[in-house]
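Dear Dr. V.,

Thank you for agreeing to look over these. As mentioned in my earlier message, I'm a first-year student in the group and I'm still getting used to reading structure tokens, so any feedback on how I've presented them would be very welcome. I ran two proteins. I've put each sequence directly above its structure. The first is here:
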Amino acid sequence: MDIRYAANARDAKHYDTRQLREEFLIESLFKPNEVVLVYSHVDRMITGSACPASETLSLAAGKKLGVDYFLERREMVVLNLGDRGTVEADKEYALDRYDALYIGMGTKNVSFKGVGAKFYLLSCPAHAAHPTTLVTLDMAVKAHLGSKKEANERTINKYLDPSVVSTCQLAMGMTVLEEGCVWNTMPGHTHDRRMEVYLYLDLPEDAFVAHLMGEPGETRHIIVRDGQAVISPSWSIHSGVGTCAYRFIWGMCGENQTYSDMDAVAMKDLY
């Protein structure tokens, strides 16, 4: 498990490109026959993947969590980005592409199987047990935002939304940009009460997203390729502009689950 410690905004403004990438970018997810986990001390979010190309993969706690099993004191969501696969969460659930499985605290046995399945994982601490629930793309709450004129027309699919499934603090969704649109989450915002992770998808090999981060008056950028993720502390904006249309998975945890609880940043206040 890769450990990332929380970075102070005063320090991060002095990071060079290498340091920014080491602290905030998750470059190597989705390795065949491996469970990859990155533990961030920002709200103790774990970002990971499981790709059971030819064998069943199990989720283990390990010494770094200090518990007997992974979800002893945590909740998590699994989103399948590949072919049909199966997740065992004390019982088996079949997930097609873009199906998600919320797994509640106290679930002891979690494993993954399915040739071609590509599971994305997000997990954070929990204080109560909620039922394990399968959430399909059709069940997700839809919000259509932006415009072609502003190059940011997009559909937000809220999978882990209080109106869809009960969780302790975990929220997750998928935003899909329309063809010809490249901007996400602009005008920008922060939410001091929650951190967020973005996973960027559907980018051709020669394409990228310039992910904007940092305090509004001290912005920086990270070049992000297909299948890579960025950790955003609560003090940082999280926006991006791509060389083509793409989709991204966003996951949050923190003090509340109110999607609209954000501190908007006016265009004139970005530097």
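The second protein is here, in the same arrangement:
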Amino acid sequence: MRAAAVGTDGRLEIVDKPEPEPGPDEVVVAVDRCGICGSDLHLRDSGLLPAGAVLGHEFGGRVVVGASDGSGPAVGTLVSVLPARRCGTCEACTSGRSNLCPLQLPTSIGLGWRSGGYAERVAVPSTSCHPVPTHTTPAQAALAEPYAVALHAFARSRVALDPDLAVAVIGAGSVGLMCVAALARAGVTRMAVAEPRPYRATTARLMGAVTVARAGDVARALGRAPDVVFEATGAAEAPGQAVALAAIGGQVVLLGVGAPGGQVPMPAFAWVVKEVDVVPSIAYTDAEFSDAVAAVAAGAADRIVASTHHRGLANAEQAFEDLRRPDGPVKVLLDPTA
């Protein structure tokens, strides 16, 4: 089968891979669409991935081989895939924090351990497959994963308890826009987004946010310093900017994933004197992923779906380059069927 894999020069190239061999409690999914995440860009550039690695953890598709032990969805079912195996029995899983399950890292799909969705077919745990409503499009099925990331960040924030708080989002890439979508769906109206790229800013504005080019202009746009700042870029300097922006006694939620091994400079004086709470947010719980599938199928991310570009696997490397351009697309979904 065809896959877009990391080559010896670090660039993505089309290769032939063996058909996936599922374990007894695994299914094979024919990928309809797979999103390119900002963390994919970081990983590809990190030099940590071996040649032949297949990225892609934001994907949906149809089950084409069922699990031999009878678990999971039947052949023909359209699913969104939670890209890891979680044990369900560890302290994290039983306490409702399955996003922190220690089993998931070595079983992660499309992050360097197991081959991911930049391929025609993928073997995944049957428990990772979340059937989607019949009217769900392939794009919606693939975008459930980044929407789940936003749902978890929202749940970690104070605004989940008080939607009347003033909120800022730094960065209107796909994760930042998913955050805007989740906030809007929850009834948050006092929301500003800092994004210098006009195309992305326009999308955020259409979703209900006030947009500014620079993070320093957020307070003016809101009429006050934000109570909660969501940092969604992963840039090394952005957490420090978020702390500087936040109101006295405010909160910063970090959901942008930086480069592996990167360091984050923070304004120590402002951070301590203002008593800003900094909250990390990683991935999502199983329940949040299920909620994301339902929300995206109901149209929660349709503005992002409408601005998404679709490319064939052969254009994967070019898509990576396009996403880095100032005028590049908000989101790219790879289509292994093209």
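From my reading of the second output: The mean pLDDT is 93. The CA atoms of residues 55 and 124 lie 14 Å apart. Does that match how you would interpret it?

Kind regards,
E.
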